[in-house]
Write a structure and sequence with these properties.
Structural class: alpha+beta
Number of strands: 16
Helix content: 40-55%
Radius of gyration: 39 Å
Order of helices and strands: EEHHHHHHHEHEHEEEEEHHEHEHEEEEE
Length: about 450
C-alpha cells in the first residue's frame, strides 16, 4: 500500500501541507491549533485506518493530545495551589487566634485581675503583673496586625482589651507632658532607697554623693529607705555628719523597721515632727514608720515604707535567663517560686496592714512614700493606694522606671497621698546614679 504522506502545520494557521517528514506541533495560540485540527480532520488525517505506520501513529497521538483543552492541567494545578493557599491561610489564622487568646489575652487579663486578688488566694497573677509592659505591647501588636489584615473581629477584640484596661494603662504609663504651675506654698517631697548611701565615704572636701544630691534637691521632706548610718568616728555617713552637712533639716529621725533590727528608715524634715511610731508589719528585715508632722499648723501623717523585697541577686537573674533560654519551664517555675512567691505573700499581708493603718488615720492629710518592691499593676500597690491618689500616675509622664534589674525596668518606688493633698510634677530622676534606685520627687500642697 502506498504510504500516506505526513503533514506539517503552518504556524500562521494555513491549510496543512503534504511533506515527507514529521514536524512538531508547536502553535502560538489555541485559535491556530483549533484551525489546524479542523483542517487535519477535513483531509482525513485523523480517521481510523488499519495500515497505520508508526510515524502516523505518533502523529495521531500528538493530534489527540493537542485536541484536549490546554488549560485542563493548568486548572488542576491552579486548584491545588488555591487549596494549599487556603489551607495555609486558615492554619495561620487559627494559630494566630490561639496565640492571641491564650498566650496574650488570658495572661493580660490575669495580670489585671492580680491587682484585686490577693496572692494568698491565687499567686499566679502576681507573677504576670511584673510582665504587664510586655503583655500590653503584645496586645497593641495584635491590634495593629488585625487592622492591617482587616480582621475586624480580632481588631475589636483587642481594642476591647485595651478599653477595659485603660485606667490600669494610665496608671502604669501616665501621659502628662506639660508641667503644672507650682504654687508658692508647695512642699517638695523626695523619696529614695539610698542603698546605705551607696557605701561611699563622706568628708568635708568630698561629700557623700547621696547627701550632696539631697542638699541640691532643696526638698522639704525626704524619706529614705536602707539608710544605714555608721558611728560618728567612721569615715562613712553618720548622724553627726548628716547634721553638720544638712543643717537645713533640723528634724532627722532614724529608726529600724523592726525595732532593734531590719532596714533603717530615715526622715529628714524642715517641719517639726510631733510623733513617730513603727508600723506592725510582719517581716524580719522590712517594715514601715509613720510620722506626724506639723506643716503650717496642719497635721500631716507621713508613711515611710520599705515592703518585703525579692532579694534577687545578679546570680539569680543569670540563672533565670539561662533556664528561660533552655525552655526549662518546670525548673524556672520552681526557682522563681522559691524567691518571688514568699515575697508576694508577705507583701500582701503588709499591704493589708498598711491599708488598715491609713483608714484609721484621723487627719485628712496623708502622704505615703517608699520602696514598695512592686509595680503599679500589683495587689500591694492597689491595696495601699485604695482611697489615695498616686502622685506619679496623676502628674507624671512615661513609664518612670525607678529600678532596673537585668536591663528590665520597673517602677517600684511610689508616692501616694490623700484627696485633701494635691500633687504637682511628680518625676523620676533617671540621670541620678547615687543608688540602684532612682529618686522620686513631687510637690504637694495641703488643701
Amino acid at each position: 500500500m502506498k504510504r500516506e504522506a505526513c503533514f506539517s502545520i503552518d504556524l500562521l494557521g494555513k491549510t496543512p501541507q503534504k511533506s515527507n517528514y514529521f514536524a512538531s506541533f508547536v502553535l502560538p495560540s489555541d485559535k491556530l491549533r483549533r484551525r489546524a485540527l479542523l483542517s487535519c480532520k477535513a483531509q482525513g488525517y485523523m480517521t481510523q485506518r488499519s495500515d497505520i505506520t508508526p510515524q502516523e501513529q505518533t502523529a495521531r497521538h500528538t493530534l489527540k493530545r493537542l485536541s484536549r483543552p490546554r488549560n485542563t492541567t493548568q486548572k488542576a494545578s491552579s486548584s491545588r495551589a488555591s487549596r494549599c493557599r487556603s489551607f495555609c491561610y486558615n492554619l495561620f489564622h487559627s494559630v494566630s487566634w490561639l496565640i492571641n487568646l491564650f498566650l496574650v489575652a488570658l495572661p493580660y487579663l490575669l495580670a489585671l485581675l492580680g491587682q484585686y486578688l490577693s496572692p494568698r488566694f491565687f499567686l499566679f497573677p502576681a507573677y504576670l503583673g511584673l510582665a504587664f509592659p510586655f503583655l500590653l505591647s503584645m496586645v497593641v501588636l495584635f491590634l495593629l496586625f488585625r487592622l492591617v489584615r482587616r480582621q475586624w473581629r480580632g481588631f475589636i477584640f483587642n481594642f476591647l482589651l485595651l478599653a477595659l484596661s485603660w485606667w490600669s494603662i494610665r496608671s502604669y504609663i501616665p501621659l502628662h507632658p506639660t508641667p503644672s504651675v507650682i504654687p508658692p506654698h508647695a512642699v517638695k517631697v523626695l523619696s529614695l532607697n539610698c542603698q546605705a548611701f551607696a557605701y561611699e565615704k563622706h568628708t568635708a572636701d568630698k561629700p557623700n554623693p547621696t547627701l550632696r544630691y539631697i542638699k541640691d534637691s532643696h526638698a522639704d521632706i525626704v524619706c529614705l529607705q536602707e539608710a544605714a548610718i555608721m558611728r560618728d568616728d567612721s569615715p562613712y555617713v553618720s548622724a553627726k555628719k548628716i547634721a553638720e552637712y544638712l543643717p537645713e533639716y533640723p528634724y532627722v529621725v532614724t529608726r529600724y523597721a523592726q525595732g532593734d533590727r531590719g532596714t533603717s528608715l530615715m526622715l529628714l524634715s524642715k517641719f517639726p515632727v510631733r510623733n513617730t511610731r513603727m508600723l506592725p508589719l510582719e517581716s524580719t528585715f522590712n517594715g514601715g514608720i509613720a510620722y506626724t508632722l506639723d506643716v503650717a499648723g496642719r497635721e500631716l501623717t507621713v508613711f515611710n515604707l520599705h515592703l518585703e523585697s525579692f532579694r534577687l541577686t545578679t546570680e539569680d537573674g543569670t540563672r533565670y535567663a539561662r533556664l528561660a533560654r533552655e525552655i526549662e519551664a518546670v525548673a524556672l517555675k520552681e526557682q522563681m517560686e522559691q524567691k518571688l512567691g514568699p515575697a508576694f505573700l508577705k507583701r500582701a499581708k503588709q499591704a493589708d496592714r498598711v491599708h488598715v493603718e491609713i483608714i484609721h488615720e484621723k487627719t485628712p492629710y496623708i502622704l505615703v512614700c517608699g520602696d514598695f518592691n512592686d509595680t503599679p499593676i500589683s495587689y500591694a500597690h492597689q491595696r495601699i493606694a485604695s482611697g489615695l491618689i498616686d502622685a506619679y500616675a496623676s502628674t507624671g509622664c512615661g513609664a518612670g522606671y525607678s529600678f532596673t534589674f537585668k536591663r528590665l525596668g520597673f517602677r517600684i518606688d511610689h508616692i501616694l497621698h490623700s484627696r485633701r493633698v494635691k500633687s504637682y510634677n511628680c518625676k523620676v530622676d533617671k540621670s541620678a546614679t547615687i543608688s540602684d534606685h532612682k529618686p522620686l520627687s513631687c510637690f504637694i500642697s495641703l488643701e
